[in-house]
Every structure is written in structure tokens, then in C-alpha cells.
Amino acid sequence: MSSCHPQPKIFACKQSEYLAEKIAQAFGVPLGKVITSTYSDGEFQPSFEESVRGSRVFVIGSTFPNSDHLMEMLLMIDAAKRSSARHITAVLPYFGWARQDRKDKPRVPIAAKLVAKMLETAGATRIITMDLHADQIQGFFEKPVDHLFASTIFLPYVKELNLDNLTIASPDMGGSKRAYAYSKFLESDVVICYKQRAKANVISHMELIGDVTGKNVILVDDMVDTAGTLSKAADLMMERGALSVRAICTHPILSGNAYKRIENSRLKELIVTDSIPLKQESNKIKVLTCANLFAEVMLSVQENKSISSKFLM
């Protein structure tokens, strides 16, 4: 590597160290050293323990709540900017606060847009993320966004399952585009769940559009939070004659009673990535790593190569 372009450096926010280590290993550089000092009131200060002057810096961190995770990402980007890094790429395997992507009622924020502006203000010159809650969030940024699809990880696994009478399902109308993309690749049927919410995370009614009799169903979604929708959809499909129901959800938020719901549901398997660390183990949850996908894209960015081969969908 020429002296005018020093070796790229990869740093991790604390909540994503487990994933950043795998990404750095696949990328072929050691994970950079960061020391975080914490005041007694909870305020913290990350510090790079090596020079980043003139380097391309990758900061890896999923920004799931609490808000300290987003704050740590912002502080590390700011530290890199003030240390004369040449490029600063924010790598967010899970882009948090993305469900607030529009005004769906009066007097509410558009948090996803606010987070995009904060990342850019801090000094990010590029964003790499995976399976955004809504594709149009890319448009909230003025900097380049590489929006990766976890389908490149999930589809080989689904093919290995070798299921007969495979049907792809969307747990709601909003995810139908994602479900159709999977079904096109797998040459399968599609069914859609129609749900009405009483309020956030509470479903009042669910109906099924399509036939699942005698089918092995795979539900596809970008995230699983309380697992209320998934468990309800799985139970409904088994009642309607499905042979088995699995779910593919990129980001395992899994809050509240989610683990208990999954264990007690008729879901055969929940397949997720390691974009967010699991809080507990479960025999029903299969984790596929996204480390290689991110490492390959980061290498392509470093070498100014095309990454279009990483988009199966």
C-alpha cells in the first residue's frame, strides 16, 4: 500500500465489538484500539489510541436503543474527523430509529432523517448499512449510502433447507416488496398477512391473503422486535394448514417477552443475522453472520471497486 494512502483502520463501538472483530479478521487488518473513559454521571469519551491521520477509518456500530449506542457512534466519528482522518465511513449493521421514517400522525419527529443529519454533521463521509426499515431512508443522506441486503446471506441457507412446496410470506402489507423479491429468486408462491394495529407493538386483528395449505412457509421481515406479529402469523398459518412456518428477520431486536413468545409459538425456526447481539440463547433461533458481507463491501470501498454483485435483490 502506498505511503500516500495509509492502511485503512477499523474501530468498534462497544455494543458491536463482537461483530467488528469478525469483520476486521475477514477484512485482514487488526481491530483498532479505543479506550473509553466514563464519568460518574454516565458521560463517556472514546479515544483512539493510534494515529488515524490521512487514513480511511471505518467505525462499526449498530445504533439500537438505548441512545448511548448512537451517541458513541457520533463521538467516534467526531474524534476521527478532529484527528484528520481522510475518509470516515460509518458502518451501521442495524440503523436504529428507522421506524420513524415519516410523519404518520401530527406533531411527531422524523427520527431517521434526524439521525442521518447527525451522522453527517459529526463527519461521516460514507454510510454502509443493511436492510433499512424503509429503502427511502437512503434519500435522507447527502453522502453516499451503501445499502446491503441480507438476502445474500439468507438465500443460500434457505436453498440448503431444500423445502418442498415453499411459500414466502410477508407479515404485513409494507413488506410485500421484500417477500416478492425472495419469491422471485426462489421461484415460489407468496402470501401476505394483513394486520391492523391498536397501537405500536399491539396487533388488534390479522388476516391471511393467499393459501398456505400443505405449504412450508417462510416469513420474511427486516426486523423482529416483540415477536408479536411473527408468532401470531405462524399460529394463523399452521391453523390454515401450513406444514411448517419459519421466519427470516435480519435484525433480532427481541425486546420484552419476545424470547418467550418465540419459544411458545408454532414457529419452527427464526433465522437472523448478528447485526444485534442476542440477549439469550434459544434452540429456535439460528444466527448467520453478516461479517463477511460487510468485510467484502468495505474492501471494495477501500479499493474503489464496484459492489453491485452484493445486491441479489
Task: Chart the SSEs and their pairings.
Layout: E1 9-12, H1 17-27, E2 34-38, E3 44-48, E4 56-60, H2 68-82, E5 87-92, H3 111-122, E6 126-130, E7 145-148, H4 151-161, E8 166-170, H5 176-186, E9 189-199, E10 202-209, E11 216-224, H6 228-239, E12 244-252, H7 258-264, E13 269-273, E14 285-288, H8 291-302
Parallel strand pairs: 1-4, 4-5, 5-6, 6-7, 8-9, 8-11, 11-12, 12-13, 13-14
Antiparallel strand pairs: 2-3, 9-10
Helix pairs in contact: 1-8, 2-3
Span of the ends, CA to CA: 34 Å
Average of the residue pLDDT scores: 94
Separate helix tally: 8
Major sheet strand order: 10-9-8-11-12-13-14
**Spans where pLDDT lies below 50 across 5 or more residues:** none
Helical content band: 25-40%
Instruction: Report Rg.
Output: 20 Å
Shape: globular
Proportion of beta-strand residues: 25-35%
Order of helices and strands: EHEEEHEHEEHEHEEEHEHEEH
Task: Report the major sheet.
Answer: 7 strands, mixed
Based on DSSP secondary structure assignment, what is the total number of beta strands? 14
Question: Can you characterise this structure?
Answer:
There is one protein chain. With 313 residues, the protein is of the alpha/beta class. The protein is 29% helix and 27% strand. The protein has helices at 17-27, 68-82, 111-122, 151-161, 176-186, 228-239, 258-264, 291-302, and strands at 9-12, 34-38, 44-48, 56-60, 87-92, 126-130, 145-148, 166-170, 189-199, 202-209, 216-224, 244-252, 269-273, 285-288. Strand 5 (87-92), helix 3 (111-122) and strand 6 (126-130) form a beta-alpha-beta unit. The longest helix has 15 residues, at 68-82.
